[in-house]
Design goal:
The protein has helices at 31-34, 59-62, 93-96, 107-118, 137-151, 174-193, 213-227, 240-243, 268-286, and strands at residues 2-11, 17-20, 41-44, 74-79, 85-89, 125-129, 155-158, 166-167, 170-171, 197-201, 235-237, 244-247, 250-255. By secondary structure, the chain is an alpha/beta fold. InterPro entries: SGNH_hydro_sf (IPR036514).
Length: 294
């Protein structure tokens, strides 16, 4: 195996793209896993301004968010003996991986590393994460659209909710969630048009202070709407069931204590729980039998 490309592209003050051959590569907490030889593609898109060679750069990509301009976007491509299976995801900080996961060890990274370890020497696994902390659906689905044609994923894990969506000054109420869901449906169609399989997640929880009655009801309704997509044959993974706390027999929109550190985002254990739910789904899609696992 050899590394084909490590690239970092930024936009200069004049608006022209500049590529740095070494990718301005910096250490990741998971770099040892990446270099074991079973990852086909690993990358991240932290800010739309950091990638200017997708083609048309539109207002959605350049819309400001909470990130500092100049955040890195790194893509590492490996030449492997066998074809690789690459997954993608997008979303807000819940899906990006928070500071409690070094912004690296999210569910997609954990899923890809675990499957790669099971199939060393047979099937290389890789991933690309388009999630951005603080972004709304108009942004992070645009990031997915921009990067998908370059990554050529086999499957794309779609977020089930974002707390960042706003209806004027109100976050994540019913109107906000309706807007998010409309864009989610469009994203699923885009995934199919690119030859990949969409995998839907149900909503991740949030902290109790955020989940006021309007947000809680809208969150619960959105979860039910996504679960009902199973009736039409969609692959829906109920992340809420492993992350969320129940009150009076219903998920209340907050986390189980073991699944979060800051009460807002999943921690390592939370992302691991979601990855465990995704493993059998991806194995089935890839045609990987249990008896083939090392």
């Amino acid at each position: 195996m050899r590394i084909l490309m490590i690239r970092h592209t930024v936009e200069t003050s004049q608006g022209a793209p500049v590529t740095y051959s070494n990718g301005m590569f910096r250490g990741w907490s998971g770099v040892r896993s990446v270099n074991r030889g079973y990852d086909y593609f690993c990358g991240g898109l932290k800010n739309g301004r950091d990638r200017t060679d997708f083609g048309a750069v539109n207002a959605d990509l350049l819309r400001p968010n909470t990130l500092v301009n100049g955040s890195f976007a790194c893509a590492v491509q490996f030449l492997t003996q066998h074809p690789g299976i690459v997954g993608m995801t997008t979303g807000d900080s819940h899906h990006q991986g928070t500071t409690s996961t070094s912004e690296f060890n999210g569910y997609l990274a954990q899923l890809s590393v675990a499957l790669g370890q099971e199939h060393i020497g047979a099937v290389p696994f890789g991933w690309a994460n388009c999630a951005v902390g603080g972004a709304v659906s108009q942004q992070f689905f645009a990031y997915l659209r921009a990067l998908m044609s370059h990554v050529h994923p086999s499957y794309v894990i779609l977020p089930g909710w974002t707390a960042n969506e706003m209806n004027e000054s109100i976050c994540a109420d019913a109107t906000s969630n309706d807007r998010f869901f409309a864009r989610l449906l469009q994203a699923a169609d885009l995934v199919r048009l690119n030859g990949a399989v969409p995998i839907w997640l149900t909503p991740f929880p949030r902290n109790e202070a955020f989940m006021r009655p309007d947000q809680q009801r809208a969150w619960q309704d959105l979860r039910q709407t996504i679960l009902e997509l199973r009736a039409s044959g969609e692959l829906v993974v109920d992340a809420t069931a492993v992350l969320g706390r129940q009150t009076d027999g219903a998920f209340d929109g907050t986390y189980l204590p073991a699944m979060t550190t800051d009460h807002v985002h999943p921690n390592d254990a939370g992302h691991a729980a979601v990855a465990d739910l995704l493993k059998p789904v991806v194995r089935t899609l890839a045609g990987l039998e249990q008896d083939a696992i090392r």
